[in-house]
């Protein structure tokens, strides 16, 4: 918009929903006018342009950053734009891969690692709901668990997460996956998508006790995709070795590395 104004244009086509669709924006001398009727002064546009790690929404002609402090975890949550779908930042750490790829491709890689996805799916950590929504395209039903209500609030603002809130095949649970999984019936899921924050942020979700519960709730021919992180990095390699050992200890039979998806796939039988 700033470049178009410098060139003397009076309209420009941009995306106001984080790359999902495009719309025509009118460029006035003092402000920009959105199709919704909202307007924003040029100073706000410059401020937004200068912040590459925040997304904003416009309300009452004012831009507000999409962010929140979680009383629950004591961590800051925010929505960060990319050239594709946005990611969520927790304490400044992106919850999806953004280096040499993007959150959308990252999601497709995770799903591909356990495709074809059929039957009932457990998505252990909702986040922005990308894995839950993608899995729901072919699954019978998806149960997705999120520990932090702030994450859900951030997702509500994200145009890419809307299906999470209105998809008939998705059930959202707010709770700790470590505890919630104990309440789920044995042999009830065909697939588990386990996409926890990094080990140092969520150690419980990498524990033998958690993997034993995952094994219990899976059907006999079920499998789990476990995101871990870059297997070529020092910490990724170390955590991967521990995860594989504990998954086997929990009873999983074939535990196969899925390096393209930065994780492993483990089979109950
Ligand atoms: C990497 S993100 C998940 C991304 C998600 N798969 C997606 O597609 O957007 C991890 C999420 O797990 C949540 N989380 C952390 N600990 C949890 C727990 N014990 N139970 C459930 N969710 C948890 C975090 O708040 C965060 O939203």
| Oligomeric organization of the protein chains | single chain
Please state roughly what percent of the residues sit in beta strands, choosing from under 5%, 5-15%, 15-25%, 25-35%, 35-45% or over 45%.
25-35%
> What ligand species are in this complex?
S-adenosylmethionine
- Counting DSSP H or I runs of 4 or more residues, the number of helices is 9
Strand order of the largest sheet: 13-12-11-14-15-17-16
Low-confidence runs of at least 5 consecutive residues: none
Distance between the termini: 56 Å
Total E-strand runs:
17
Shape: elongated
What string gives the helices and strands in order?
A: HEEEEHEEEEEEHEHEHHEHEHEHEE
Residue share in helix: 25-40%
Q: Please compute the radius of gyration using only Cα atoms.
A: 21 Å
Largest sheet, strands/sense/barrel: 7 strands, mixed
Specify the structural class. alpha+beta
Overall mean pLDDT score?
Answer: 97
Descriptive overview:
This protein is of the alpha+beta class and 269 residues long. The protein is 29% helix and 29% strand. The chain has helices at 2-6, 42-49, 103-113, 130-136, 149-157, 162-166, 177-183, 208-217, 234-249; strands at 11-14, 23-27, 31-33, 39-41, 56-59, 62-65, 67-69, 76-80, 87-90, 93-94, 120-123, 141-146, 170-174, 189-194, 218-227, 255-258, 263-267. The strands form four sheets. The chain has a seven-stranded mixed β-sheet with strand order 13-12-11-14-15-17-16, sandwiched between helices. A four-stranded antiparallel β-sheet has the order 1-2-3-4. The protein has a four-stranded antiparallel β-sheet with strand order 7-8-9-10, covered by helices on one side. Helix 3 (103-113) packs across helix 4 (130-136). The model has no long low-confidence stretch (mean pLDDT 97).
């Amino acid at each position: 918009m700033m470049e178009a104004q410098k060139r003397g244009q009076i309209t420009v086509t941009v995306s106001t929903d984080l790359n999902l669709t495009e719309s025509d924006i009118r460029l006035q001398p003092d402000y920009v006018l959105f199709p919704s009727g909202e307007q924003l002064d040029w100073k706000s546009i410059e401020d937004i342009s200068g912040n590459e790690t925040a997304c904003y929404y416009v309300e009452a002609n004012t831009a507000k950053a999409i962010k929140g402090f979680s009383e629950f975890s004591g961590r800051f949550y925010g929505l960060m734009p990319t050239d594709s779908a946005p990611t969520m930042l927790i304490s400044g750490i992106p919850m999806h891969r953004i280096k040499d790829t993007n959150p959308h491709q990252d999601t497709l890689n995770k799903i591909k690692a356990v495709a074809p996805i059929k039957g009932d799916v457990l998505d252990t950590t909702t986040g922005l709901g990308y894995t839950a929504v993608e899995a729901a395209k072919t699954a019978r039903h998806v149960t997705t668990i999120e520990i932090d209500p702030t994450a859900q609030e951030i997702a509500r603002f994200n145009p890419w997460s809307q299906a999470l809130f209105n998809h008939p095949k998705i059930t959202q649970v707010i709770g700790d996956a470590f505890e919630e999984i104990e309440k789920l019936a044995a042999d009830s899921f065909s697939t588990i998508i386990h996409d926890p924050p990094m080990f140092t942020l969520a150690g419980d979700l990498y524990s033998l006790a958690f993997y034993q519960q995952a094994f219990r709730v899976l059907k006999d021919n079920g499998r789990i995709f476990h995101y871990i992180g870059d297997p070529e990095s020092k910490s990724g390699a170390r955590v991967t070795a521990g995860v594989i050992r504990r998954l086997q200890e929990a009873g999983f039979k074939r535990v196969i590395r899925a390096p393209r998806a930065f994780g492993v796939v483990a089979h109950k039988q």
